């Protein structure tokens, strides 16, 4: 990259000399040098070369209320001056964490009134695993340890999180999954549906849960965990038949249901939680990301009243983190939720921007590279294919990465998961900004097609 700013090179040198970046090929990054993002406002980022970029991914699915909201900075500053830290371990608490727990209970599905706080979504899922096993032990069924999850699901990057997730490339590094976690097929019709209709495939994929429960033995299964819509796996929206069938199966067997709401939670679908969107009635919900709009790290686990009633009888739950319910993070999360409520951001997604984005995105269906456009709320996916009718991919060309690079170079962040382009913009994106996003996306699809033909 030719540089307009000598500082860019200095920062890249610091990166090369001292930084190990997450989910990166260290050597390749050294050769190329990272793009340095210096500031942001609303839905836009700026890099150190002065390029303005529309952030179609809300950071990493998290910046719900957009960048640059002073109220969150003020909330953090005020809390830091008043009580920058205290823990919740030794029968103490502080006002921000208690007020936040109440604010979350107010927006969570009915009957989910308690929150265990963590520093991230991964820690939320680690907490889930330990809490599920503790719950069944209290109930006198300590064998109910196995958690059923899904291939290509994403549940974090700690040992438990990566094990719960179904990413084989993560499992390959370090003997994962840990024992007691098994995976079933995902409801990804576009690549795995074969000749089945989406509806028939949805039923087939849901039935894998029942088969797995019977194979492992219901007396050994503690919980099933799933994202309402798989995010990192490629914005995989299950066929309409999927969740109703899963709910039937869950009703038949005595296991807990955990909805991982780290991406779907806090308005992404146009409801407060993906579980509201699909009426899932889970026993636990993992949260993070949109909880603080990413301004400060925080995650947690929202727990159903009946589960809490059992935990109440179990003595100490020997689990927690130094930063569980950190007061500064709690103050920021509270202010974030206040803004979302006062500005009716979730309602606006539902009634205005989600329908508009979904309509505009589907116009890309006429593009020769596009095999499918799908989306819910402010989540969208564009499948890039060689042949629309057969859903055949361009094998071995890395089309998604080519398209992603064109996007970056043309002022748009759109992620590539294989040959699936995905978007999840800040929830405050306006219709005019959606127009800009779709126009840039089409341009980048054109450039990708030309590159493939050229
Ligand atoms: N569950 C889900 C559904 C997630 O999307 C986590 C748990 C873990 O959260 P933490 O806060 O521990 O990162 C996530 C995180 C990607 C990508 O490539 C997605 C996530 C994280 C990193 C990369 O889209 N999601």
Biggest sheet: strand arrangement: 4-10-9-8-7-5-6
Which CATH architecture of the largest domain?
A: 3-Layer(aba) Sandwich
Q: Estimate nothing, just give the exact number of structural domains.
A: 2
Mean pLDDT: 97
CATH superfamily of the largest domain: Type I PLP-dependent aspartate aminotransferase-like (Major domain)
Number of helices: 17
Named once each, the bound ligands are: 3-[O-phosphonopyridoxyl]--amino-benzoic acid
Round the Cα radius of gyration to an integer and report it: 22 Å
By secondary-structure content and strand pairing, the structural class works out as alpha/beta
Helix content: 40-55%
The third-level CATH topology of the largest domain is Aspartate Aminotransferase, domain 2
Overall CATH class of the largest domain: Alpha Beta
Unreliable sequence segments:
none
End-to-end gap: 22 Å
Shape: globular
Largest sheet: 7 strands, mixed
DSSP strand content = 15-25%
Q: How many β-strand stretches?
A: 15
List keywords for this structure.
single chain, 454 residues, alpha/beta, Aspartate Aminotransferase, domain 1, Aspartate Aminotransferase, domain 2, 2 domains, seven-stranded mixed sheet, four-stranded mixed sheet, 17 helices, 42% helix, binds 3-[O-phosphonopyridoxyl]--amino-benzoic acid
What does this structure look like?
- With 454 residues, the protein is α/β, with parallel strands linked by helices.
- The chain folds into two domains: 35-68 and 345-453, Aspartate Aminotransferase, domain 1 (Alpha-Beta Complex), CATH 3.90.1150; 70-343, Type I PLP-dependent aspartate aminotransferase-like (Major domain) (Aspartate Aminotransferase, domain 2), CATH 3.40.640.10.
- 42% of the residues lie in helices and 15% in strands.
- The protein contains 17 helices and 15 strands.
- It has a seven-stranded mixed β-sheet with strand order 4-10-9-8-7-5-6, with helices on both faces. The protein has a four-stranded mixed β-sheet with strand order 1-2-3-13. It has a four-stranded antiparallel β-sheet with strand order 11-12-15-14, covered by helices on one side.
- β8 (256-260), α12 and β9 (284-287) form a beta-alpha-beta unit.
- The radius of gyration is 22 Å and the shape is globular.
- The relative contact order is 0.14.
- Bound molecules: 3-[O-phosphonopyridoxyl]--amino-benzoic acid.
- Residues 60, 120-122, 125, 154-156, 161, 227, 231-232, 260, 262-263, 288, 299 line the site of 3-[O-phosphonopyridoxyl]--amino-benzoic acid.
- 3-[O-phosphonopyridoxyl]--amino-benzoic acid binds at residues 60, 120-122, 125, 154-156, 161, 227, 231-232, 260, 262-263, 288, 299.
